[in-house]
Write a structure and sequence with these properties.
Elements (H helix, E strand, L loop, with lengths): L12 E2 L7 E2 L7 E6 L4 H12 L10 E7 L12 E5 L4 H6 L6 E5 L5 E6 L3 H9 L17 E3 L5 H14 L2 E2 L2 E5 L2 E5 L4 E2 L1 E4 L3 H23 L5 E3 L2 E6 L5 E5 L12 E6 L6 E2 L2 E2 L7 E2 L6 E5 L4 E3 L2 E3 L1 E5 L2 E3 L1 H19 L1
Parallel strand pairs: 3-4, 4-5
Antiparallel strand pairs: 1-2, 3-6, 6-7, 8-21, 9-13, 10-11, 12-16, 13-15, 14-25, 15-24, 16-22, 17-21, 17-24, 17-25, 18-23, 19-20, 19-22
Length: about 350
């Protein structure tokens, strides 16, 4: 069946001229105009020219224009605003149910279908694009991300203890998790600027765990009907304004090694000491979430989110993930498969 308005657009990973394996799931937070390019280069260029002639050109803030090619060609991204994807095996086209004649899809900021059209209906579709409201108004009603804010998880003296522990160890540059040759590995890239300390001190980990069990996990179960039984990583992170601390829009469970993660948590340790650094959930608008010192914000790892740049001071935060026994089995199976691959 053809994709219909209101349905989620299939996520995919594909190479672009400037990046290997771009994750389409990170494209939310703005309208997306997706063109499955026809094999005829003249028709393809005519369609592209019409988009670039719009009174409000694609800029990656209001609108992103993405073109899916069925072959690898010497094309160049035009950033911000226009990207190419290579789909030589037509896996992406197959997921969207389109042929070789060319097709349009217009997506909302949550990557759900607004409209689809053949190339013969390009003029009508682009007229629709020209009338799109501002991104924050796309639902015709204010939207709030489905997140939980819980104050008073860590008391202020304990927050200082964690910050002091960070300084005593010294943070190291943080990477992101990516799939490389079938393995989930941490890599450094341009999407993140942060320094981390993994806490290894067992008495300190016990103190953290007790506070989470007594003060946070009951609220998670009440709000989300999810009983967290596992905690991944005891990590204190520092986003420093002098290093332009930030983390661009991403999801926390899109690789084999992170698929077990169910809920992410961010506990500010010094909310009064920095500016910027707030959480934003682009699929639900540009509202900023900033728990107080010792307070937590908890959200599904599937939600697109970003840490906005810190503009003054240094933001310190404790950043665990929560999962349960069913998810633990997923993690165990992945790790066993990874180990089998190494042995072979």
């Amino acid at each position: 069946m053809a994709l219909a308005p209101g349905e989620p657009a299939p996520w995919f990973r594909a190479d672009t001229p400037s990046l290997n394996q771009f994750s389409f799931s990170a494209a939310g937070g703005r309208y997306v105009l997706l063109l499955f390019a026809p094999s005829d280069p003249v028709r393809r260029q005519a369609a592209i020219d019409q988009v670039l002639a719009l009174s409000r050109a694609p800029d990656d803030r209001h609108l992103s224009f993405m073109i899916v090619l069925a072959s690898r060609e010497p094309v160049q991204d035009r950033l911000p605003g226009m990207r190419w994807f290579f789909d030589p095996d037509r896996a992406v086209a197959g997921a969207y149910g389109v042929g070789k004649q060319g097709h349009w899809f217009l997506l909302d900021p949550a990557l759900r279908i607004i409209a689809g059209a053949s190339l013969d209906d390009t003029e009508a579709l682009l007229a629709h694009v020209s009338t799109l409201p501002e991104v924050n108004d796309h639902a015709a009603t204010p939207m709030v991300a489905p997140v939980l804010i819980v104050p008073r998880v860590f008391e202020q003296p304990f927050c200082k203890t964690l910050i002091d522990h960070y300084h005593a160890i010294g943070g190291t540059p943080s990477g992101v998790m990516m799939e490389v040759d079938g393995q989930t590995v941490g890599v450094r890239d341009h999407t993140k600027s942060r320094r981390d300390v993994l806490i290894e001190d067992e008495p300190l980990k016990t103190q953290i765990r007790l506070r989470l069990q007594r003060r946070l996990l009951p609220e998670i179960e009440k709000a989300f009907r999810f009983k967290a039984t596992r905690l991944e990583r005891y990590l204190v992170a520092a986003y420093d304004a002098e290093e332009g601390g930030f983390f661009q829009a991403h999801r926390d469970n899109t690789t084999g090694g992170t698929a077990h993660r169910r809920f992410a948590c961010s506990i500010n340790l010094n909310a009064e000491a920095f500016e910027g650094g707030d959480l934003v959930f682009p699929e639900f608008g540009n509202h900023r979430y900033r728990p107080p010192t010792g307070g937590a914000v908890v959200f599904s790892c599937s939600l697109l989110h970003e840490a906005s740049p810190v503009t003054r001071g240094t933001r310190f935060a404790f950043l665990p993930f929560f999962y349960d026994e069913a998810a633990a089995r997923i993690r165990d199976a992945f790790l066993a498969n990874q180990n089998d691959g190494k042995d072979s």
